[in-house]
Structures are given as structure tokens and as C-alpha cells.
Design a protein that fits this description.
Layout (H helix, E strand, L loop, with lengths): L14 H20 L11 E6 L5 H12 L3 E5 L12 H10 L4 E6 L4 H8 L3 E7 L5 H15 L6 E5 L6 H12 L3 E5 L14 E4 L2 H5 L4 E4 L15 H8 L3 H4 L7 E3 L12 H4 L7 H21 L3
Parallel strand pairs: 1-2, 1-3, 3-4, 5-6, 5-8, 6-7, 8-9
Helix pairs in contact: 1-5, 1-11, 2-11, 3-4, 5-6, 5-11
Amino acid sequence: MAPLKHLLGIEGLNPVAVTNLLDLAESYALLNRSGKTQRDLLRGRTLINLFFEDSTRTRTSFELAGRRLGADVVNMAVATSSVSKGETLLDTAATLNAMNCDLLVVRHNSSGAPALLAQKVGASVINAGDGTHEHPTQALLDALTIRRNKGRLSGLTIAICGDIAHSRVARSNILLLTMMNNFVRLVGPPTLMPGGIGVGGVEIFHDMAAGLQGADIVMMLRLQKERMSGGPVPSSREFFAFYGLDRAKLAHAKPDALIMHPGPMNRGVEIASEVADDPQRSRIKEQVEMGVAVRMAVLETCARSNY
């Protein structure tokens, strides 16, 4: 596939680019399962994980992906770095540029920070989540999980439920899934639904029974209270009663509907343990597995632009 210098968002990709990334990730998923995970594609290359926000799954996933491709991986501890002493993002960019790293994975609490870094460094920049903007590799791993289980990535009805307003995962998934000609439903209370989003193949529902009716995929999102000001929802208990996924609400979806969640999960808030751990329908653990494969594909593709 064609080289991709940066991955800053799903916005800017096209269906061919998405399909190519998923095809490459599928090959890595098979390779990882075979136990033959060590490759030399990125031997001599340096990958820096620069995370201004805490993350376990994403950072570890990128670290594993880089190591399995043979890269030298450096995890920068932002809390104890010069950033915590007042260094600006642009000064950090200049420092990183002087280190001549090849791949820079960035998570930041400000939307647009990875895009700014991409303008200032020679490395390929990969957005690992920026503010409420995008989380492109999460959408790609979700897409790969769906495609592997449903045999296609088009013509499906996918309900994304919960805190839509504060979710970069939701935004990236909406962009990718509608691009691939799926039907996306957003389900949640009006206070957690961003304005002007019910366009381009996206429907808005404020009732779980209606929103899940006939859905192929039910994707739950956590309440991001750290991004909320005021009280958009009365209480966790009341939120679960109306919008938490349990067996009664899931019964409105198709009998073979799959359950997904990007993590971390708040059990008893947006999802019940009985459905999160359902071995037949939950694909939450598989999402984590596919995350490594997708990030291997993204790292390889971006690294090609520097050959």
C-alpha cells in the first residue's frame, strides 16, 4: 500500500487506505497468533511513546507492536520530564527532533496537539488520542474486530452508546464506519450527545430499546467524568438504569449481535458484567488483541514513508 507519513485521524483517509491497513493488520493478527511475532522491519528505527495522558492499553499496545517489528522503543515519562517543569509543546518538539526518532506516538489532552507536532518534527506522528478529537487506531482495531467476526465491514447496523459528547473513540468510529457504508446509531441522553452530529448516515436515539433494535454491533462507551463540567448525568446508578447494557436491553438487538467496548470498562455503570464477560457475544478481549496487530500495521505503513 502507499506510504502514509502520519496518522493523525480517520478524517483524511479513504476506504482504500482503510482496507489496506486492515488487510495488513489481519496478516499481523495471524502472525501473532502463530507465535512467530519477531520481525526485523523496523530494525534500527526508534519509536518514542509520548503520552501526556495516562493509558495502559494503548501505550502498552504500541510498545508491543514496535518491539515485535524490531524497533527500539522509548517510553517517555511525561510526569517527570521537562514538560512537567513548564516546557512548551513546541520546545518538546524541537528536543524530539534533535533526537532523530523515526516514529512518534502521541496522546495529549488537547485536540490538535499531534497535528501540531507533525508540522514540527521529521518523524512520522501517530495520534494515540487527542482531547475529544480522534483516536484513529482504536477505530481501526474496532473495524478489524467487526470484519473478522461479521465477514464484512459494510451494510451493518452499529449502535454506539453512552457518553458520545466526550468520546474521541466515538468520533473516529463514526467517521470510519460511515465511510465504509454502515448504519451508525448514537444512543445516549441528550446531555451527552454533541450537537449537529445526526447527519451522513448517523441516527440519534435517546432510548436504548429503540436504538438497539436490530443492531448487529453494540459498542459501549464509558462516562468520561474527567472531561465533564457540571453534572450531565444525575448519578451512575440512574445512568445504568437507563443506558447501561444488560441482558434485557441487549435483547432488542439481533440475536447474534456482538458486544464491544474500547476500555477501560466501568462495570455496573455503562455495562453489566454478565454481558461484558459473555463468551459467545463479547468481543472486548479480542479488541485488545487486534489493537497490537493494527498498531503493527500502522507503524510499518508510516515507517515506509521514511525509507
